[in-house]
């Protein structure tokens, strides 16, 4: 074999980055791998837009099927995004005997099982380091470096767009729309930014991580998901007064026969290292029985950081091809027969601390009614701040609770919201801290 032929399907932000990196670092990659990676094709339906790359004649093509049908292609990088076309092309590429690399977390989280089975049946590598955390080497870390550990918990900032927006609002006071526009301009956001800001992109990534960490079947449906669109500058400011930062967190805890898996905005203490992860950076803490806590940090989104992870996978597969080693490491870290169905605990059954913000009529007895409702449900208040009276006669009341059962907190809030003295729906943000 003289060289390894690579085809890229999809030349958007990530595809362009991968093409650039394969071309610019071709000599370096060759010296590391010991064989040349030849970028034979880059396919995209739009071949008119300038990508800032000068391709050799015949490389930039409009039809991804050319890559799949070419018997000389060894590795296909699926960088189209979305689920339908990307899923069909991925399965076809595997059927045709190509190893596949992808950055497509939505596809893996929703159809990973079928794709993994196809790859295993064909004895092909399917690699997806770029699907979680951009260039942070999180997949390999969990699957390989921490293989000796029982993983107890993971907490991470896994969406660069949301982290960029929250950082911008809290540091510069800009609007949500301005911050989102900038994140889109910088190439961080998904084609449909709803997936980012409503938490679904983080949930796709968490579904992948829990499958790897616990050896469980992909289960996206049961992950509780909330995004950042309800977070106001006022809550970010009040969080600061209590010594907290607000981050969109992906959280999982291992309870043995069941696991917690949830994505939602959370207040974390300023001394928690995750609270210092700003802009589009991502980070993940992984708690294992032998390793204790490991923290990964890196650029979570954007053209070249994501390309870095894709090219790392391509290099891995090229080395496997050269050494005749196929699927040495099972896709989810355990042989398929050992992958289990592990239920995810409904969010109503979790216990955590809570930040509650109410607009309350400034009348005698209102605060005691509220604390009575909380007390009746076993919810203990850690601190209360009452802010200045507004012109409409209401006062913002901000409470922090000790650990409480979510089901009871939800019921208490429904009861509080039904009081005449509470004109607006209360705001609830969970607090993640180790010691309460
Ligand atoms: N839209 C994603 C993010 C891209 O903002 O993190 C990286 O997966």
Explain what you see.
Helices cover 36% and strands 24% of the residues. The chain is an alpha/beta fold. It has 3 domains: 3-131 and 303-338, Rossmann fold; 138-299, Dihydrodipicolinate Reductase, domain 2, CATH 3.30.360; 347-431, Alpha-Beta Plaits, CATH 3.30.70.260. The strands form 2 sheets. Strands 7, 8, 9, 10, 11, 12, 13, 14, 15, 16 and 17 form an 11-stranded mixed beta sheet that branches. Helix 4 packs parallel to helix 5 (105-122). The protein starts with a strand and ends in a 5-residue tail after the last strand. Bound molecules: L-homoserine. L-homoserine binds at residues 134, 159-161, 188-190, 196, 201, 300-301.
What is the compact description of this entry?
This protein is of the alpha/beta class and 436 residues long.
Mean of residue pLDDT?
96
CATH-derived topology of the largest domain: Rossmann fold
Proportion of residues in extended strands: 15-25%
List the ions, cofactors and other small molecules found in this model. Answer: L-homoserine
Estimated radius of gyration: 24 Å
Helix content: 25-40%
CATH evolutionary superfamily of the largest domain = NAD(P)-binding Rossmann-like Domain
Span of the ends, CA to CA: 60 Å
List keywords for this structure.
alpha/beta, Rossmann fold, Alpha-Beta Plaits, eleven-stranded mixed β-sheet, six-stranded parallel β-sheet, binds L-homoserine
């Amino acid at each position: 074999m003289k060289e390894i032929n690579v085809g890229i399907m999809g030349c958007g932000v990530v595809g362009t980055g991968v093409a650039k990196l394969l071309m610019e670092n071709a000599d370096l990659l060759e010296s590391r791998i010991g064989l040349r990676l030849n970028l034979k094709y880059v396919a995209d339906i739009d071949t008119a837009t300038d990508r800032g790359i000068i391709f050799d004649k015949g490389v930039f093509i409009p039809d991804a099927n050319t890559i799949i049908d070419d018997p000389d292609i060894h590795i296909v990088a699926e960088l189209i995004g979305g689920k339908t076309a990307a899923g069909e092309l991925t399965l076809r590429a595997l059927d045709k005997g190509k190893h596949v690399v992808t950055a497509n977390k939505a596809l893996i989280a929703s159809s990973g099982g079928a794709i993994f089975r196809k790859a295993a049946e064909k004895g092909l590598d399917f690699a997806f380091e770029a699907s979680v955390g951009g260039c942070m080497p999180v997949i390999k870390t969990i699957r390989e470096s921490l293989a000796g550990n029982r993983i107890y918990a993971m907490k991470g900032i896994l969406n660069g767009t949301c982290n960029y927006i929250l950082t911008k609002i809290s540091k510069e006071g800009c609007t949500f729309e301005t911050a989102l526009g900038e994140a889109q301009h910088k190439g961080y956001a998904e084609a449909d930014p709803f997936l980012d800001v409503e938490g679904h992109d983080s949930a796709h990534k968490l579904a992948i991580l829990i499958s790897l960490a616990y050896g469980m079947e992909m289960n996206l449906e049961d992950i509780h998901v909330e995004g950042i669109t309800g977070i106001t500058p006022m809550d970010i400011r009040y969080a600061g007064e209590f010594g907290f930062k607000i981050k969109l967190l992906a959280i999982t805890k291992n309870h043995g026969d069941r696991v917690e898996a949830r994505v939602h905005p959370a207040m974390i203490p300023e001394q928690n290292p995750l609270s210092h992860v700003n802009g589009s950076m991502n980070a993940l803490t992984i708690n294992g029985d032998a390793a204790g806590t490991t923290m990964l940090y890196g650029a979570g989104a954007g053209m070249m950081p994501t390309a870095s992870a894709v090219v790392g996978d391509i290099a891995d597969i090229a080395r496997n091809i050269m050494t005749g080693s196929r699927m040495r490491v099972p896709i989810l870290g355990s042989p398929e027969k050992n992958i289990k169905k592990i239920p995810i605990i409904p969010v109503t059954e979790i216990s955590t601390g809570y930040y509650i913000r109410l607009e309350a009529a400034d009348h005698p007895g209102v605060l005691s009614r509220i604390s009575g409702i909380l007390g009746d449900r076993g919810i203990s208040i850690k601190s209360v701040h009452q802010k200045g009276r507004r012109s409409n006669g209401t006062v913002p009341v901000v409470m922090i609770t000790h650990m409480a059962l979510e089901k009871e907190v939800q019921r208490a809030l429904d009861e509080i919201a039904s009081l005449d003295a509470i004109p607006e729906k209360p705001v609830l943000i969970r607090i993640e801290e180790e010691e309460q």
